Amino acid sequence: MYSNLSNFSEDINNSFIIIFSIISFFLIAITITIIVFVVKYREKKNPVPTPIKGSVWLEIVWTVIPLGLVIGMFYYGWMAWIPMLSDAPDDAIEVKTTARMWSWLFEYENGKKTDTLYVPEGKPVELQMTSPDVLHSLYIPAYRIKRDIVPGRTTNIWFEPRKTGEYDLFCAEYCGLQHAYMITEVKVLTQEEFDKWYIDTTAVAERAATPGAEGLQILRMNGCVACHSLDGSKLVGPSYKGIWGHEVEVETNGDKRTLIVDEEYVRNSIYKPDDDIVVGYTKGLMRSYEGELTDEEVDKIITYLKTLSDKKE
Ligand code: CUA
Q1: pTM for this one?
Q2: 137 Cα–ligand 1 center, Å
Q3: Which CATH number fits domain 93-200: 3.40.250.10, 2.30.42.10, 2.60.40.420, 3.30.565.10?
Q4: Which CATH architecture has domain 211-307?
Q5: Is the N end or the C end of the chain the one with fewer CB atoms within 10 Å?
Q6: Which regions of the chain are under pLDDT 50?
Q7: Which string of b and e fits 79-110 if b means at least 16 CB within 10 Å?
Q8: Which atom of ligand 1 is nearest to the CA of 99?
């Protein structure tokens, strides 16, 4: 069923089947030989060991055959892998991909941003991948592709989806506490559906009209909600629910103090997260978003935080 979901699937599947068949054969053959020999040549039946003479012929056979098999396995693996590293076709759709602790962001050529990868069926797609923090790895098992994302570098991977549907996309490199949150989907649409989705900006307009909706979108796109819940539950960081305008006990330079969650506090917590740590949480887990989230975006986040609190000012 997974034989032809991307342009790479078939070759990878074949090389897997070839290698798996060879090693299975040897696993079974060697195990049987061991058992037979253990029974047949046990000490009780053969109290006096027979001296073994060398055999050039036998040595050649058991060197040449495995060598051929190993080279064969290498060949099929190599031939399946090389096309993945080759340049994407010129007509590939380019998607800027950001992997970070702990979310995915996909940016299209027209500026559209999502946390799910949308692609059209039958068109090559190239992901240009970067990470602002640590090592991640993009893995789409159904497409048989995987590639590391290294901070300070751009790595590329491309594929051509062959069938509409939804397939898992996740991070395959342990990248910290919430590594498991880095799971999303590739949604493969028909060309027609994709074109519609691509130019559709009604969702953006709706968001702009609802108070706080843009702020929520920013929190989602930047992975904030992986660590800060919206419903009051305790995750890596404090929840956003009901904090605005209320008192909070924080630790500043080793001293405890109480302050009000206001604009200054929120802004500073985003730009310099280690300055004031809410009591009961751990320092050093959040990275600074200075230079990534603009003042305007922080204002939108604040508008959203107000919608989660009984205090509005
Ligand atoms: Cu990112 Cu694991």
Answers
A1: 0.69
A2: 6
A3: 2.60.40.420
A4: Orthogonal Bundle (1.10)
A5: N
A6: 1
A7: ebeeebeeebeeebbebebbbbbbbbbbbbee
A8: 1
